[in-house]
Automatic annotation (TrEMBL):
<dbReference type="InterPro" id="IPR002999">
    <property type="entry name" value="Tudor"/>
</dbReference>
<protein>
    <recommendedName>
        <fullName>Glycosyltransferase</fullName>
        <ecNumber>2.4.1.-</ecNumber>
    </recommendedName>
</protein>
<keyword id="KW-0808">Transferase</keyword>
<dbReference type="InterPro" id="IPR035595">
    <property type="entry name" value="UDP_glycos_trans_CS"/>
</dbReference>
<comment type="similarity">
    <text>Belongs to the UDP-glycosyltransferase family.</text>
</comment>
<dbReference type="InterPro" id="IPR002213">
    <property type="entry name" value="UDP_glucos_trans"/>
</dbReference>
<feature type="domain" description="Tudor">
    <location>
        <begin position="245"/>
        <end position="307"/>
    </location>
</feature>
<comment type="pathway">
    <text>Secondary metabolite biosynthesis; terpenoid biosynthesis.</text>
</comment>
<dbReference type="Pfam" id="PF00201">
    <property type="entry name" value="UDPGT"/>
</dbReference>
<keyword id="KW-0328">Glycosyltransferase</keyword>
<keyword id="KW-0150">Chloroplast</keyword>
<keyword id="KW-0934">Plastid</keyword>
<dbReference type="GO" id="GO:0035251">
    <property type="term" value="F:UDP-glucosyltransferase activity"/>
</dbReference>
């Protein structure tokens, strides 16, 4: 395996993840990978008090240093004690939460200055202000992107050509000039990204600051691999609006095999039982962020019940309870798990043959890495474009919404979901997308193996960052001009 040049026996990288598990977990996979391949590379991670236990447990068998920062308190609009997006009572408070992170900047800089020399900083794209901090001490900042290259390339191309302006309907299909085989709708983007959005709103200002900081950073890390998104990687490299990007994924494949737990969680015992019965299982999960109406959840329950398919539904805290009696009626073939479920372990389980998903990028990457096809039901953020990529580009999934014009988002009726679940799990289209997902899984493994594209990219990144003579002024800018006051 690779090792750092002897010129830098004390090479040092700092990580600062965003306070959301979906943003943190891929970076922790990267930390593991770095420590395994580059043993002389020391790692320091910044975390809030509430976030630290999760990180410590995740990396309990890995030698890293963790520095704890206090999350700001008494922020207007934010409940006391909220230190992660998972504990926000409503996603409407997301901009306020993100802006509050900047109040950690003085303490972050104090701790950063006291550290041994740092070769580079990897911080989440939402922590835009870390560019300014890193620049003060001549440290190159690399932004971690939670987006796919497809989302980045399509968004840049659409914004450059102003394709969302003057369109009559949010569901009208629009041809992307730079990629004429790709069609999108206005509804594929959240309202804050549309031309008529108020640029002075807190959400708009936060997003613009984050985008600008990424553009002005030394580079970015993407949890993807070149073979998955070749055309879109090339576009971002040659025509996109960001600095050099290193595709290092799928980072979920950096995990080492776990020992079988002495006391298996209930959901894992249930999956083992379905495997022994020869019953294929549909995994159902919609992430930890989305607000889903009780009416929609009941329609999903109807679709699952009437499909006759075995399913494991990982319900999160924001999801309300479904109609009384549902779990009793489906108990022989369906399980609703309310405790924390290890999604990676679920998707790689031999009984799991499909995934009804919101298409968050981590979920997409994990699913195709395991060869599991997706029934795509996007809800917000980049999920609609991810769904298009899965269904229309990769051919590794089906749409859950088929009657909303050109849109991939929308309300799902139970009877329609029943039909689509059966098609994914038992139909001819399901066989086709399952075959394609299996092919992508093999590609993903090769990308992460020695001399694969992601393996080489990580080698290049570490050698480039740790063999530099002098670290000053390596950013695209000094970071000035990105100052943002809460």
């Amino acid at each position: 395996m690779g090792s750092i040049s002897s010129d830098f026996p004390s090479s040092h990288v700092v990580f600062f993840p965003f306070m959301a598990k979906g943003h943190t977990i891929p970076l922790l996979h990267l930390v593991r990978l770095l420590r395994r391949r580059f043993r002389r590379l020391s790692v320091t991670i910044f975390a809030t008090a509430a976030h630290r236990p999760f990180i410590s447990q995740f990396l309990s068998d890995t030698s890293v240093s963790i520095i704890e920062l206090s999350f700001p308190q008494d922020i207007p609009g934010l409940p006391a004690g909220v230190e992660s997006t998972e504990t926000l009572p409503s996603l409407s408070l997301f901009p306020e939460f993100c802006m509050a992170t900047k109040l950690m900047q003085p303490d972050f800089e104090k701790e950063l200055q006291a550290l041994p020399p740092v070769n580079f900083l990897v911080s989440d794209g939402f922590l835009w202000w870390t560019l300014e901090s890193a620049s003060k001490f001549g440290i190159p900042r690399i932004s971690f992107s939670g987006l796919s290259n497809f989302v980045g390339a399509i968004s840049v191309a659409v914004m450059k050509d102003r394709l969302l302006a003057g369109v009559e309907s949010d569901d009208e299909l629009i041809t992307v000039s730079s990629f004429p085989w790709v069609k999108v709708t206005r509804s594929d983007w959240d309202p804050v990204f549309l031309p008529e959005a108020d640029p002075t709103s807190l959400h708009s200002r936060f997003l613009m600051a984050s985008i600008q900081a990424t553009i002005n950073s030394y580079g970015s890390i993407v949890n993807s691999f070149y073979e998955l998104e070749q055309v879109f990687c090339d576009y971002m490299k040659h025509g996109g609006a960001r600095p050099k990007a290193w595709n290092l994924g799928p980072l979920c494949l950096a995990q080492t095999p776990k020992e079988a737990p002495h006391n298996k969680p209930t959901w894992l015992e249930w999956l083992d039982q379905k495997r022994s019965q020869g019953k294929p299982v549909l995994y159902v999960a919609f992430g930890s962020q989305a607000d889903i109406s009780a009416q929609q959840l009941n329609e999903i329950a109807i679709g699952l019940e009437e499909s006759g398919v075995s399913f494991l539904w990982a319900k999160k805290g924001r999801e309300s309870e479904v109609e009384e009696g549902f779990e009793e009626r489906v108990k022989e073939r369906g399980m609703v798990a309310r405790e924390w479920v290890d999604q990676w372990e679920v998707l790689r389980h031999e009984s799991v043959k499909g995934f009804l998903s919101h298409c968050g990028w981590n979920s997409v990457v994990e699913s195709v890495s395991c060869g599991v096809p997706i029934l795509a039901w996007p809800i917000m953020a980049d999920q609609a474009l991810n769904a298009r990529m899965v269904v229309e580009e990769l051919k590794a999934g089906l749409r859950a919404v088929e009657r909303c014009g050109g849109s991939v988002k929308g309300f799902v009726e139970g009877k329609e979901l029943q039909r689509l679940v059966r098609e994914l799990m038992e139909g001819e289209k399901g066989k086709e997308v399952r075959k394609k997902a299996a092919e992508i899984s093999e590609m993903a493994k090769k990308a992460m193996e020695e001399d694969g594209s992601s393996w080489r990219n990580l080698e290049e990144l570490v050698q480039q960052m740790c063999n530099r003579q002098g670290q000053k002024n390596l950013q695209g800018t000094t970071g000035e001009g990105n100052t943002f006051n809460y």
